[in-house]
Amino acid sequence: MTGNHKNTTITRRRALAVAGGTVAAGGLAAAGYQSAFADTTSSTTEATAGSSMSSGTCMELMSSVTEGPYYLDGALVRKNITEGKSGVPLTLRLTVVDATDGCTPVPGAAVEIWHCDAWGYYSGYTTANPGGSAPAESEDGSTANDKTYLRGYQVANANGVVKFETIVPGWYTPRTCHIHLKVHTGGAKEDGTYEGGKVNYTGQLFFDDEIAESIFALEPYSKHTGSYTKLADDMVYDGGGASSGLLTLKAVHKKDPSKGYKGFLTLGIDPDAESTGAGSGGGGGGTPPSGAPTGEPPTGAPSPSSSASS
After folding, report:
1. What is the average per-residue pLDDT within 97-110?
2. Burial label, 143 (beta-carbon count in 10 A; 0-12, 13-18, 19+)
3. Distance between CA 204 and CA 194 in Å, rounded?
């Protein structure tokens, strides 16, 4: 892999505004995860985000894309979605704002994310072949629940902010490295999950090729070999940089990507709109790899449990 694609141009085809900031994170060991996921966002980051909201310029509405073939209802409301899955730590700070009302925060909005593990497997669909050559999902040695890992909701605070603790996703054929997300409003937390309301936005978050490929050279990612799809060749990412969902990321240690990353993104939505991304949406969903699902939840879909946490 020779990832050197760094598209920094900004378009309005799929408008997403990114609030950047400094990061601090730890390593892959247990103590490292605690450090990587610590809430150490600097006051500089807070000031940058605040400035973007008060400048009088509001980001445009984001255009939804497909939810893809691996969506499942019933994800748990929790901050840490790893469930023991190994990989490079990633902390996401996402801010939901109303792009139709001066980018005011949307408190109570529920942000849902889901993505594959380091070898390209999704919970609920662990027998789907990720393409290339990878060990079976069951060989990773984790205690993760095969129906719930790397999926979760967080409900936005008064400033419209949610935070997730996860790992950098791996890849599967024919997609580049990405995270799926939905923004819901009008519902409420119930029995450990989020019920009711409507989906205002369905989208995907993307990773710079150089960053992704430096991570994929590490264990456990390196056990999945094959042809990785670059951003420029992905069927969903449209080349628009941040406005197309490209995350702003900064390594804790420039020479050691295993120490983790933090990513920041401001999501401009219309709370009155509805866009589920199911069965349609711009950008296409990508041809599922061999053995992949058709979109129907498997028998025994995820159910709330005592593992749900704030």
Report:
1. 94
2. exposed
3. 20
Paired sense of beta strands 110-114 and 161-167, if any: unpaired
Q: Please state, in angstroms and rounded to a whole number, the distance separating the CA atoms of residues 76 and 157.
A: 17
Please state whether 25 falls in left (phi above 0), alpha (psi between -120 and 50) or beta.
beta
Contact 139, 121 (CB under 8 A): no
pLDDT of residue 87: 97
Contact assessment for residue 140 and residue 215, using Cβ atoms and an 8 Å cutoff: no
pLDDT band at 65 (very low <50, low <70, confident <90, very high): confident
Q: How far is CA 134 from CA 115, 166, 171, 292, in A?
A: 17, 21, 11, 15
What residues have CB less than 8 Å from 97, skipping those under 6 apart? 53, 58, 59, 103, 104, 105, 106, 160, 266, 267, 268, 269
Q: What is the CA radius of gyration of the chain?
A: 18
Cβ neighbour number for residue 32 with a 10 Å cutoff = 17
Element at 54 (helix H, strand E) = helix 43-54
> Is the entire prediction scored with pTM above 0.85?
no
DSSP strand E in 4-140: where?
A: 89-98, 104-105, 110-114
